[in-house]
Amino acid sequence: MKNEIDNIYNQAISVIEKITNGEALEALRVEYMGRKQGKLTLLMKNIPDLSIAEKREIGPLINKVKNALTIAFDKKEKTLGQITNSENSFFDITLPGEKFNIGTLHPITQVRLQVEKIFQKMGFEILNPNEIDDDYHVFTSLNLPPQHPARDMWDTFWTENDLIPITHTSSMQNRAMKEKTPPFGVIVPGRCFRHEATDAHHEHTFYQVEGLYIGENINLSHLIGTILTFLQEYFQKELRYKIQPSYFPFVEPGLEFLVSCVMCDGKGEKDKIPCSTCGHSGWLELIPCGLTHPKVIEMAGLDPKKYSGFAWGMGLDRLVMLKYGIEDIRHFHAGDLRFLKQF
Amino acid sequence: MKLSLNWIGQFVDIDKRKAEELAQRVSVSLTEVEKIENFRGVDVVMEIENKALTHRPDCFSHIGIAREIACIERLNFKNPLEKLNKKKLTFPKKTLPLQVTLKEDNLCKRYTAVILKDIHINPSPLWLQERLLACGVKPINNVVDVTNFVMLELGQPLHAFDYEKIKEKGNTREIIVRLARRNERITTLDGIQRELKKDMIVIADLEKAIGIAGIMGGANTEISEDTKTIVIESANFNEYSIRRTGKITGLHTEATLRFEKGQDPNLTYPAIVYVIQLLEKYAKAKLVSSIIDIYPQKTKQKSVVINTQKITRRIGTEIKDTEIKKILKRLEFEIVEEKDDQLKLAVPSFRNDIEIEEDFVEEIARIYGYDKITPQLPTRAINPVTEDLERKNSNNILSILSFLGLHEIYSYSFVSEYLYRKAQLDHQKMLTIKNPISPELRYVRDSIIPSVLEKAEVNCRNFEEFGIFEIGKEIHSLSLKKLPEEKKKISGIYYSKNQNETFYKVKGIVETLLNHLDITNYQFVLQENPQPFLDPNKSAQIKLLIYNTTGNLYKSKVQMAKEKPTEIILGYLGNLNKEVRNNFSMNGCATVFDLDFESLLVNIPEKNRYHPLSRYPSLFEDLSFIVSGNLPVETLRQKIDEVDEQISNVTLKERPFYSVKFGNNKKSVTFTIEYRNSKKTLNNTETQFIRHKIIQTLKKEYQAQIRE
């Protein structure tokens, strides 16, 4: 019996060596070690019939052989597997890459940075407004004394101590003129507030970029040139423009700067469907602006005979909505990651 | 405002069929035309935007717009006022008595009135009704319609009182313009009883108020079908007072709209003449008084001197003087004097918006055409622009935070008491808004955290793990007399439903941010008074240690260890306590952080110090110690770092772990130690010596056992 075991072992080892594929290896494993008819298994079934002395000798021997063969089979399987994998297996480049969780910046921040960059390139400095400011800076210094009828144009919040969550970042005009030496250009991006119920198109909290340029002999052509240059840089396309009279007490004249609709290129429709962005008109009323009122210059301590300038205010929210086609302004403050993760 | 083109056509010869082209020219020269509409096939209605005309009371009438159109279209303007002003009226010998008294001159600039008798109240003629309907005004009866008609044509609001209903005393009746009395009430024509405030102007008889001046008449003197005798009021009230009263009462009538902009006082007379004419014709009315006209202070003729050169310089394009003069004439500015480029102009009384030379930049430019100006950029020296501290670094901060996986959110600056209560914060120190839109927006926030928690709650429903942050302002009201202090903060939260600890995630984010900004001397210490929403055992203050670097920029670390640095508190981080997590419906673990933006910006070093590369190799060695479970790892690490100048770096190799093998509440801490000498290669004996020093120091200070 001892010889028989040795033979089985030697035989098996030599055959395993020659095996070249997985299926043959598995068949061989069944032949020797299969649970029912394996050669080694059959031998083991004889053990109970042996004498005690034989049992002591044969039992451990069979176990040893069984272990050795198991190792040999496993090893061969591994070798065969490696060969198969490296030579034949498919390298799946479509599997997803390792995942990195990267966050996002709010779309208004992204557009603000973009706007800031364009104006910085054009030589404008950036100022930060107060979020809560006094009547003098928000209204009076802008040629809007108390009881001025035009104050109604701004729906204003008031704090208990008669301060104002700013209605526009024009609140920095007076400070800018007091601090800087002309010629200078500044922009003031900031959060503004108006007392208005919120719906898809209206928000009580919004973002504005005020611009102010003061120098000698500044005129309407400079105002138009500056705003047009900015808008073409921002939208990266040639735009037609149109100017309409408007009224703001801190500019004279007060104007509304309109550009050809960036969605339908001023045609009023796209693929024969009326353009909803411009309300079919082909024009976008984008930037209220004007030449700085001499009283505003004077109140800031500059000589309006010597200096003139221009100012404008534009809504960042609007630029963002135009850029991405966002239909509901309420998304901006909802904090919903399903919205924010898209930017 | 709606305008009938038939009506305008009476004063200027326009072609109704070319209304669209006309509208385009009106839009770029006066105000935006919002709509052109056919009215019942007989008229064309042009609807214009009022906002750009806030300063142009004259344009709230058909003659005002007709005058503008005549100017824009270079057509003749047939002004009806001239005829009305010259009209000869015949007054009866026998008159009814009426006295008008102005108690407050400065509140009523002019009061013109007349009495008409034998009124037949009937519907107005169809043509008149059509005019009103085209402008969106409902016809009522001939008297009311005529007053509305004249207002729409000339811009002068009018009112008719029933003469018989005015209180008679002795042999006369009196109309008094005065301020309202305390607790005075009036039921207005709309049937609503209104309480009057003491600074409102009222029209009264000897007994009671019979109208709120410039806003709406009283029901007590209303015209009815039986009315036979009426008083027509054509007055001019102080625009500021009317505006205030309109706002308080919430009554925005056609009259208010015109009065609050400041109508021309010279309109009251021609308007009343026009009303008389029309009522004589359509209500069979007869004059039964002369025209009572109280005009205490006649408005003075204003004049402005302009320099045509200066005007064209401001416009930025060459315009000939002859062209300028033509435009001025059409707009009814009369040239009183002329010398070289200087023109002295008489301002017509209906243009109360014109005050200074700059006003003519607009007048000339808009008629000449903004489209004729060639755009150009201002020229100046090309000095580089100074960049503020925030712009220099905020891009960097924003991109680091987002690259570390945080999403930026925006939330309102206004918060509610309820939100603060949920976050276990005191709302009482916050500034309040007097006129909030809703109670949820009543306070101006002095912390960003509650808003961040609110937004986290929103997202817990859809995401199991996320990080968000906001850069926003805290508003601290220090004194009600001063502007509040505004502090910009970076506040955020990291939430995970499944992870049982997020503290180290957030700490890692903060550390990475600081390291990336080259801020290295920071320290995390347990907060003594943690914010109420935090778990007191899991919150840390973030401190910056500022060493005095004057004199010696390259201090050795042993030197630095001896020096006492200035401490700046940069912010804090910490886990939300269970109650607050529950309040915001969070199931897992959540860590918040709050960093002071300004402190961060000002402490970003200008230049990071360069460390020369060592020419000699470093030796690395891992050392494990068994220490008390309560000993902070950082204390241990710093101690090792200070042992010898030749220890160039000490880092934690793996998270500490506890085992019963080490004893009760003992943990194993493993550090990787880098030995280096910048002047030579260290040999084993030397590192052995340092290692021995480390082991001895830790044993002495913390009873630390080296683990072999």
TrEMBL record, chain A:
Residues 177-342 form the Aminoacyl-transfer RNA synthetases class-II family profile domain. Mg(2+) binds at residue 252. GO terms for cellular component: cytoplasm. Binds 2 magnesium ions per tetramer. GO terms for molecular function: ATP binding; magnesium ion binding; phenylalanine-tRNA ligase activity; tRNA binding. HAMAP family: Phe_tRNA_synth_alpha1. This is Phenylalanine--tRNA ligase alpha subunit. It comes from candidate division CPR3 bacterium GW2011_GWF2_35_18. The gene is pheS.
TrEMBL record, chain B:
Signal peptide: none annotated. One of its GO terms (molecular function) is ATP binding. GO terms for biological process: phenylalanyl-tRNA aminoacylation. Residues 614-707 form the FDX-ACB domain. SUPFAM superfamilies: Anticodon-binding domain of PheRS, Class II aaRS and biotin synthetases, PheT/TilS domain, Putative DNA-binding domain. Mg(2+) binds at residues 353, 359, 362-363. It is an enzyme of class 6 (ligase). GO terms for cellular component: phenylalanine-tRNA ligase complex. Binds 2 magnesium ions per tetramer. It holds the Pfam family FDX-ACB. Keywords: Aminoacyl-tRNA synthetase, ATP-binding, Cytoplasm, Ligase, Magnesium, Metal-binding, Nucleotide-binding, Protein biosynthesis. The keyword Repeat does not apply. It catalyses: tRNA(Phe) + L-phenylalanine + ATP = L-phenylalanyl-tRNA(Phe) + AMP + diphosphate + H(+). Its cofactor is Mg(2+). It is found in: Cytoplasm. Its main location: cytoplasm. Coiled coil: none annotated. Residues 299-375 form the B5 domain. PROSITE patterns: B5, FDX_ACB. Belongs to the phenylalanyl-tRNA synthetase beta subunit family. Type 1 subfamily. PANTHER family: PHENYLALANINE--TRNA LIGASE BETA SUBUNIT, PHENYLALANYL-TRNA SYNTHETASE BETA CHAIN AND LEUCINE-RICH REPEAT-CONTAINING PROTEIN 47. Tetramer of two alpha and two beta subunits. This is Phenylalanine--tRNA ligase beta subunit. It comes from candidate division CPR3 bacterium GW2011_GWF2_35_18.
